Amino acid sequence: MSELNGAQSLIRTLVDAGVEVCFANPGTSEMHFVAALDTVPEMRGVLALFEGVVTGAADGYARIADKPAATLLHLGPGLGNGLANLHNARRAHTPIVNVVGDHATYHKQYDAPLESDIEAVAGSLEGWVRRSEHTKDVGADAAAAVAASQDAPGRVATLILPADASWGEGGETCAPIPPRVAQAVDATTVKDVAEVFGAGEPVALLIGGSACREEGLRAASRIAAATGAKVFVETFPARLERGAGLPAIERLGYLAEQVTYQLDGIKHVVVAGAKAPVSFFAYPGKPSDLVPDGAQVHTLAAVGQDITRALTEVADLVAADTEPVLAQASRPALPSGPLTPQNWVDVIGALLPENAIIADEANTSGLLLPTATAGAPRHDILTLTGGAIGYGMPVATGAAVAAPDRPVLNLQSDGSALYTISALWTQARENLNVTTVLLNNRAYAILRMELQRVGAASGGPKANELLDLSRPDMDFVKIAEGMGVPATRATTAEELAEQLQRAFAEPGPHLIDAVVPPLL
Amino acid sequence: MSELNGAQSLIRTLVDAGVEVCFANPGTSEMHFVAALDTVPEMRGVLALFEGVVTGAADGYARIADKPAATLLHLGPGLGNGLANLHNARRAHTPIVNVVGDHATYHKQYDAPLESDIEAVAGSLEGWVRRSEHTKDVGADAAAAVAASQDAPGRVATLILPADASWGEGGETCAPIPPRVAQAVDATTVKDVAEVFGAGEPVALLIGGSACREEGLRAASRIAAATGAKVFVETFPARLERGAGLPAIERLGYLAEQVTYQLDGIKHVVVAGAKAPVSFFAYPGKPSDLVPDGAQVHTLAAVGQDITRALTEVADLVAADTEPVLAQASRPALPSGPLTPQNWVDVIGALLPENAIIADEANTSGLLLPTATAGAPRHDILTLTGGAIGYGMPVATGAAVAAPDRPVLNLQSDGSALYTISALWTQARENLNVTTVLLNNRAYAILRMELQRVGAASGGPKANELLDLSRPDMDFVKIAEGMGVPATRATTAEELAEQLQRAFAEPGPHLIDAVVPPLL
User: Fold this and answer.
1) In CATH, which of 3.40.50.720, 3.40.50.970, 2.30.30.100, 3.40.980.10 is domain A4-171?
2) What sequence ranges are listed for the domain Thiamine pyrophosphate enzyme TPP-binding (chains A, B) (predicted)?
3) Residues of chain A neighbouring B474 (CB-CB closer than 8 A)
């Protein structure tokens, strides 16, 4: 029998498989896991004060590190608190290994207060779920969880760990299990799709998933340049590489009206690692399916296939001698005067540091951001893949853990900030280089817009009250300082620029409460 | 065809069934519900910035109002964010009517970003779940939901409302449906249990649920006084009436060691609306079942039965001429000097106002509270029924909405506060009379204790790091002020007393950041 307990075998196996960070919000049933951290020096434990921060940080970490972090969650309610950001991770195809502590196997029969149906909640994520009932199996189950999380294209794996499996003696480590890699697209499909581009009819190419990195973007740009096809990135990519020296490919719009404009006249939609365009929500009397009438959809690659390779093969057929169109280095001039939805993005474009990571939850405030940053130095942008708000601060936190040498910029709307605000405390604790620009428009501005768009009788006082965040105004400077993050307030473009430069120059987290009126 | 849309028929039906408050965190799919609020003046909408505040407030509201509130939640992620406090509500047998908006029925096939398995998550609550697919059925489904939530002993009912069912025309209201009332315990059981008390062996009576109100407490006290039985209240009652003029019945301890002491020598455990004692968590080598060896368990009443009536019938058999033992009015003297885990509770006991509601999430800091408040003016105490922390601030919020004329005191540990801290903003917005005493010991103190109790190798630096909240220290004065709640800091008993008196005297919410060292 080994000298490891279950928790020790688990953490050792995770580390051997390359999982080196565990974002944690533990409780009593996880205490042996917590104690075991001191026996495996390679595993870093990062504490968060709420599980939505834990799971969002794991999402942000993996989007940047290209490998999973672990989470440590306390029974069903802990998993529930983390569920919204796991939903976003599911949509991002992010590999995450959840370790959810549970009551000891023999204790479950007593239906103690924290007993609940963990499998049902974990199962809603449509990932991988296993309960590790016996100490000797914990290592093997952990290795299986890591592999499952990394099976192309990536997903959420949840390992339920009963307390007695964790504390029991006789734990056995397990060697890493190779995950299922992305399969190549067959040659016939490549050839057929290449012919669509060559047929002389208007084509839109919609790319997503792993094709949103440099190689995929270059292939897509070559295809567009050679064939005249329009090319778009999916509306909410998990990670999009952008900036000077990379192809600047427009994202498909969030609003159906935008998409209709973008796809006007298109006869063929080729999707590569993305879904055919659908409306984010349904609206009375408007179509959900945004593929233009009469247009045909062709799938080049599913999200779990080798999208970039397939795109490159198509490009080699239709654009053999064509170079991609790359964005030139170009920054907007620094604006002046009171902050507006139009000018704040120019401050970002003017000052974005080299190699930055943007965690974007600016929502309506950020509609003009892409233009302002297209020629900025090369950067990654992470977006809200699943629509569950409260993602920005945690994802920025995890990204900063994954890339301590890169500046992380969290563009964060006020309405979404309060879901996971304690991420600021973890940023302070870990001294992470995260600069949060808090876009404080004192409203659920997107819902004001949506109230009109769904055709609901607009503007009753009670309805408007539920979309208003100005009574009382939140003071994000005080909230941030209360959590240990230095903070300032900007009401003019000059102030934002000055404060942003200072924040980027100083190590550790900063928050700028940017008072920007609503766009609409 | 009626002139109502689905949302209007829903809200009208809820109001007709007595549901007059909706705690809401809406999104696009709920916009017709939001718009419909202006057509039904009797329904009050209360906005929260996070769904855990919504569901916890609904729990607190119903514990005080004795009838359900509605919640308004945004698809699966919104329900997920609310799940932990719904878990607590499930354990409290609190009636709650969740309205979870979903995509339009015809939109679900497109698997848009926010699509997820709402039924799976709602089903984990083991309550009532229904999807209302057709506008004309929404009213009837709403009436069924209200009834289901109130079926004895009370539970969480979740109505999933597709956007097109909400916005469709032809909604029909539905008259209230009578819920299933608590059934009487049969006479044989009452007689058999009465004989247990009369048999001359040591008996412990454990009461819970609805028996924790005055009438049940009086019956239990009479039985104890007449027969010499020990009597206990379940460890975490949903609502316990206490104070001068009521029987002061000790609660069963949280720690197994306490329970073993409390039940020492007992041969019969009679349960009435409570479960037989079990350990909250399992611990290596320690029993989960806390019924003393050889003792027999007798069930007088299940939680869904008429517990109080059954207790009164037993009392009439075994204690016909015995009066209950009532707590005398008695307050501790106001202490002085630096705050300690021992003296802060005396400040509460000395100053608790008449008819207060205490939302207690003091955790380890509150171990000495019951003694200090036993002779205070009559009050209700609400406790953490399901063990999912982050309950105190939302429950206090909901209780204050239910009882605007009663002072609400939230005793709140720091570690638990950050889960649902934005409840403070809702308290400010609604000008609720909630006084929060934030017990700031800068640690997950309960986990420090549990790390020892589970026998985990204690005290490695990484393990201790994950239980420490002092790096950085949180400044709850700033956090509260940032959310619009006036706040002060107390480090001495004198300061706490002075600030508490001021907070109780002024209308609206207040927070006192009470710096109290850990008990252990």
Assistant:
1) 3.40.50.970
2) 377-513
3) 425, 482-484
